[in-house]
Recover the amino acids of this structure.
């Protein structure tokens, strides 16, 4: 699918606020509401827009610590990857799991109420998973969210 300037403007505006009404979006882009709605629908049908998410402020809902974990599996092989991915998916504090290339096999984003809570999650839940070897933790100090290059 080829994106034109209007498509890119729609995507950028929806990244900033996916809940805005199409009438408001159309006015910003100098398009009619039906044309804007058709473009959004076309982008959804083509798989460019795959969903809309509600973003929560983790700190305001009681999770004041975010930690990025690099996890290197002790044993490599398809079985250990599948077992690890299935097990890590059951831990609610793990917000994202990225299978990566490099020093570590996985990059996890983990939230916790405080450092003591993170230590509990790490020791009792993550370190006991099948195949877990080396782990490196990086505590998030601050975050600046930036939209993609659309």
């Amino acid at each position: 699918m080829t994106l034109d300037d209007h498509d890119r403007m729609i995507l950028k505006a929806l990244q900033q606020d996916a809940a805005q009404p199409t009438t408001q979006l159309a006015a910003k882009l100098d398009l009619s509401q039906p044309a804007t709605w058709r473009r959004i629908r076309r982008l959804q049908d083509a798989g460019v827009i795959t969903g809309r998410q509600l973003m929560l402020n983790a700190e305001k809902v009681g999770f004041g610590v975010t930690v990025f974990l690099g996890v290197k599996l002790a044993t490599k092989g398809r079985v250990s990857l599948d077992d690890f991915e299935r097990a890590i998916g059951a831990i609610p504090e793990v917000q994202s799991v990225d299978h990566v290339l490099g020093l570590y096999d996985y990059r996890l984003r983990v939230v916790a109420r405080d450092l003591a809570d993170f230590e509990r999650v790490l020791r009792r839940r993550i370190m006991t998973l099948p195949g877990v070897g080396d782990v490196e933790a990086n505590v998030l100090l601050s975050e600046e969210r930036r939209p993609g290059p659309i």
About this structure: The chain has two domains: 5-45, 59-139. Residues 17 and 52 are 10 Å apart (CA to CA). The longest helix spans residues 33-45.
